[in-house]
Amino acid sequence: MSGKDDRLQQIWHRYETDRQHKPTSAREAVEWAVEEGLLELPETDPYDVLAGWMAQALRNEYRTDEKERRYRVNHSVRVTKVGVQYSFWGSMPHSSHDFMEKNIRAAPRIDHRRMRSVESRC
Question: What is the pLDDT of residue 114?
Answer without folding.
Answer: 54
